[in-house]
Amino acid sequence: MPERASDESAPGRKAQARRSASLLKSRLLKEEQTAFDTALRSFAMNPAFERMSAMIARSRRRFVLGRGDAQEHAMLLGASLKASFSQVFLVAPPGLDHLDLLADVRTGDVLIAICNRPYRRDTVEIGRLYVAAGGTLMLLTDSADSPLSAFASEQIIIEHATRDAQDDATAVVLATRLLARLASASSKGAVRRAQERERLGDLLDLYESDMRWVGRGHKPGDVAP
Q1: Which residues of 188-214 are buried (b: 16+ CB within 10 A; e: fewer)?
Q2: Does the structure show a pLDDT above 80 at 203?
Q3: How many Cβ atoms from other residues are within 10 Å of residue 52's Cβ?
Q4: Which residues sit opposite 157 in a β-bridge?
Q5: Which residues contact 180 (CB under 8 A, 6 or more apart)?
Q6: Angle at 187 between CA 184 and CA 193, to 5 degrees
Q7: To the nearest whole number, what is the mean pLDDT of the chain?
Q8: Burial level of 30, CB count in 10 A (0-12/13-18/19+)?
Q9: Mean pLDDT confidence for 4-13
Q10: What is the dihedral of CA 159, 115, 174, 161, to 10 degrees?
Q11: Residue 112: beta bridge partners?
Q12: Greatest extent of the chain over all pairs of C-alpha atoms, in Å
């Protein structure tokens, strides 16, 4: 009898688990919406985006640095910039070690560092040494008092909607996308490069045609008749 009672309560436990998941999803989506709205208001009034994007566009070489949780955002920014610019490098092994970066600092290059709480010691030290070698540092950070702020030629302050900065990746992603698109738009060469990449993609037939959906039902996003 106890076993049967346990079996009969299983559907109830599953329903409760689904309700708990739905409540958690609603809470998480609300937090993401708050973070997004906060970032939009902050970025709209921040002229540092225009200044930093112009510096990126006229640079000879562009290095992107982020360690720990910030490395994912650095990879995103680097990939976005590579779509429009040549000479874009992510400072991360095995591609480019920080020793190689610091051993070859040149005029006209920029280092774009993403440094948010908790501040990584290696990011801070690499940024400081790069500036000491005569390089130009640009910074995406969460505070004007961050360890690298005093060394940056330009910085973007990413305000966090919550006290837990690690949970506020939405604002950082938005900042990297906005910065990359502004940099691309401010450079005629970047626009030509993006157009050439698109042409070569078509020439090499890299992408599936929309015809792949023929005979397989409705294309995702289409409304069924």
Answers
A1: eebeebeeeeeeeeeeeeeeeeeeeee
A2: yes
A3: 24
A4: 141
A5: 77, 80, 81, 83, 84
A6: 70
A7: 87
A8: exposed
A9: 66
A10: -30
A11: 64, 138
A12: 81
Q: What is the pLDDT of residue 205?
A: 85
Q: What is the arithmetic mean of pLDDT over 175-181?
A: 96
Q: What is the pLDDT of residues 51-109, one digit of tens each?
A: 999 999 999 999 999 999 999 999 999 999 998 899 999 999 888 999 999 999 999 99
Give how far the C-alpha of residue 39 lies from the chain's centroid of Cα atoms, to the nearest Å: 13
User: What CA–CA distance (Å, rounded) separates 152 from 100?
Assistant: 21
Strands of 79-166, DSSP E: 88-90, 110-115, 136-141, 154-157
Position with higher pLDDT, 44 vs 15: 44
Distances in Å between the Cα of 1 and the Cα atoms of 7, 8, 57 are: 10, 11, 74
The amino acid present at 185, given as its one-letter code, is A
Over the stretch 106-155, which tens digit does the pLDDT of each residue have?
999 999 999 999 999 999 999 999 999 999 999 999 999 999 999 999 99
Which one, of 89, 97, 100, 93, lies nearest residue 62 by Cα? 89
Amino acid sitting at position 148: L
Distance CA(80)–CA(184), nearest Å, equals 9
In whole angstroms, give the CA distance from residue 166 to residue 169.
Answer: 7
Q: 42-201 belongs to which homologous superfamily?
A: Glucose-6-phosphate isomerase like protein; domain 1 (3.40.50.10490)
